Structure formats: structure tokens, C-alpha cells
Amino acid sequence: MGFVSLTRLRLHSWHAYPAFSVWVLGSLWQSLRAEGLVGLQLLRDRQHAFWTLTLWRDSQSMEAFRNQGAHGQAMRHLAQWCDESAAAHWSVSDEELAQACRPQWNELQQRLMQRGHFAALPLASEAQRAHLIPDPALGRGRVIRLR
Fold first, then answer.
1. What is the three-class DSSP state of 105?
2. Adjacency order of strands within the sheet including 37-44
3. pLDDT tens, residue by residue, 52-61
4. What's the rounded Cα separation, in Å, for the pair 96 and 28?
5. Domain count, the chain
6. CATH code for position 118
């Protein structure tokens, strides 16, 4: 069995980019050393939005990564930086985990809207309050596969 974590967030302003970028780099470095990480993909979407798809050996590995180090610290700042933030997690078979390495981002977007947790944000956009997520913009050079 494996475990999938899908997140999407959108920065409310360009002013959030410098601090956000520092924590993203720290989180990426942390993820590459994380125990149990099977795969990682990032999608830089339009309008300051970012997606992550991480594949894990089990939920405990994901939770250990999520709550510690640079990633754990970055999560404490999301309310300052973001006007949209959603996450979904689910268990998969080993076969499904292998297929998840080649994601269909539009299907993931639907799953996130239907089963995701939408964070309560002080600067929440109308879309965030309505649990709406635009289709991801899939263009050349936007998806980064790290594992």
C-alpha cells in the first residue's frame, strides 16, 4: 500500500513570493531526504498557484515530513501568504501508486474539489470560500518531477 498527498495553494500577492520561495527551497531539500518518499511533482500554475503531488510509502512517512523541519515551519505562514489552500490525502494500492507517478492533473483537480480540505484563511478568495479550484494550466515547462 502507498499514500498520496495532493496540495494546491495560491499566493494572494507578489509580495509573498520572497518569503514563500525561501521556505519552498527548504521544503524541497527536506523532501529529497525524507524517509518513505516515493515520488514528488510540482506544478507551477497560473495566477500565483502551486500544486504538489507527493507519493509516499505510508501515511506515517508523509505526516512526519509534513509536520517537521522547513515544511512544518512553512505551513505556519500559509495564512499570511495565501488566499487559497486545499489538500487531500488517500491510500492507494502499489499498482495505483505506480500509476500516480504519471498524474492526470485535471482528475486530481476534481478529486481535490470533491474530497479536499479547504483551509480557513483570513484573506480567502471567493473561490476558496466556494471550494472551487480552476482547471490547472498545463503548459510546457510547468511540471517539475523530482522523483
1. helix
2. 117-118, 82-92, 2-11, 49-56, 37-44, 143-145
3. 999 999 999 9
4. 24
5. 1
6. 3.30.70.100
